[in-house]
Amino acid sequence: MRQHDTLFIGGEWVAPAGTGVIDVISPHTEEVVGRVPDGTPADMDRAVAAAREAFDHGPWPRMTFAERAAVIGRLADIYAAKQGEMAALITEEMGSPITFSNLAQAPQPLGMLQFYAEYGKTFEQEEERPGLFGPTTVRREPVGVVAAIVPWNVPQFVSMTKIAPALLAGCTIVLKPAPETPLDSYLFAEMVTEAGIPAGVLNIVPAGREAGEHLVSHPDVDKVAFTGSTAAGRRIAAICGEQLKRVSLELGGKSAAIILDDADLPSSMGMLAIASLMNNGQACVAQTRILASRNRYDEVVEAVAAMVSSQPVGDPADPATGIGPLVAKRQQERVEGYIKIGMDEGAKVVVGGLSRPMDRGWYVAPTVFAGATNEMRIAREEIFGPVLAVIPYEDEADALRIANDSEYGLCGTVWTADTDHGMDIARQVRTGTYGVNCLMLEANVPFGGYKASGLGRELGPEGLSSYLEYKTIARLG
């Protein structure tokens, strides 16, 4: 068992203020695999004080972008050497299939570090612009102390969408990992120390909701960066609004995959399996609404059912596993609750249902509903599990209407033999990320959502901008 009895604050491993602990339980075995301190508001105060000191008086904000980029590059090199260890650790703590962990849980955070390390080499702090009465300097300065609050589903991915650009900007950070997945943050803290990032620039306090809200409300926090549920995002936005505090929110999704009549179903299903079922369905970008025309509806239902049925369910550490357990018993019960809701609403279970595929572990049967409508709760609410609803449409205009008829706007895809036409479809769906015959998240382009899927953008140059304040300096003579 991985036992940690300290917190990473001010560049040191320090004793927590309280005696509470967080047990990390394997979703596969239901056994305790790790234990860390349960951070308290007092621990958050200490972490914020360390970050405040590092920002107000430390070297990090006063270095050039190129100097910080060089340190981030060292961190990326260290991360690259340990990404296999990181992937295995995330699989152990939250049940992500090891194939997905090796594909995304560790490599994508590494890619973010590498992007910002390279981007920062030539990024200028000041830019000269001509004015009516003389030259004007536009100066980019770090926003200050950042509270980064992340969920459990892709813990390093969502942590790095905040940490990497914040570091390059010159900010200091307090990271609050989710109670379900704190172990990966300890490994990352070791990398931060080895890379030579100054004390207090990154502080890590695993904790629950009470300490998290204390961190959000802290007067010495200048910006909150949050990934999680829309309900929690609304609460955080309200707190930040009261304090006029900078905030970025990456929230839920209910993405639609539009399958056009000219799509090659066998090849589409290979990519759609990843797009819809990645990480056991526990992904905000998952394509969980499958839109099929009435002309090919039965054919699409059959193809989706075969695709889901072909995914081996089992031990997430087994490379052959396609779908593992859900993160916690409460999540298992939540997803099974939605399966029952779908049945009660009149949708037909084609694959899966309420029979659990494993006697032990927090598994649910990967499930496909046919006969679903976009008005059903299984089509409108984020389930966060391997549950897909195949919804019929009349024509392309109807497909676009259904895709846009959602409170969310995070992601989406279209599947077609005509990529140019797919681009036309993409331009008409109100989402922040879209894929034509694929679902890709890249470090060099913005990621975020429309509507209730969030505020602001992460990644790319746009992600860096959210950690900067812009100062205009005009002068005469």
Properties at a glance:
15 helices; alpha/beta; 6-stranded mixed sheet; 22% strand; 477 residues; globular
Structure report:
The chain is α/β, with parallel strands linked by helices and 477 residues long. 40% of the residues lie in helices and 22% in strands. The chain has helices spanning 41-57, 65-94, 98-105, 107-119, 155-169, 183-195, 209-217, 230-243, 265-277, 297-309, 329-345, 377-380, 396-404, 419-426, 460-465; strands spanning 2-3, 7-9, 12-14, 21-25, 32-37, 126-129, 136-142, 145-149, 172-176, 202-204, 223-227, 246-250, 255-259, 287-293, 348-353, 365-370, 387-393, 408-409, 412-415, 435-436, 450-451, 454-455, 468-474. It has a seven-stranded mixed sheet with strand order 15-16-17-14-13-19-20, sandwiched between helices. The protein has a six-stranded mixed sheet with strand order 10-9-8-11-12-22, with helices on both faces. A three-stranded mixed sheet has the order 1-5-4, with helices on one face. The radius of gyration is 23 Å and the shape is globular. The protein starts with a strand and ends with a strand.
Give the strand content.
Answer: 15-25%
- Provide a count of the helices: 15
**What structural category do the secondary elements indicate?**
alpha/beta
Contiguous uncertain segments of 5+ residues: none
The total strand number stands at 23
The radius of gyration over CA amounts to 23 Å
Q: Any idea what the shape is? A: globular
Helix coverage percent of residues? 25-40%
Distance between the termini: 67 Å
Main sheet: strands, sense, barrel: 7 strands, mixed
Tell me, rounded to a whole number, the average pLDDT. 97
Strand order of the largest sheet: 15-16-17-14-13-19-20
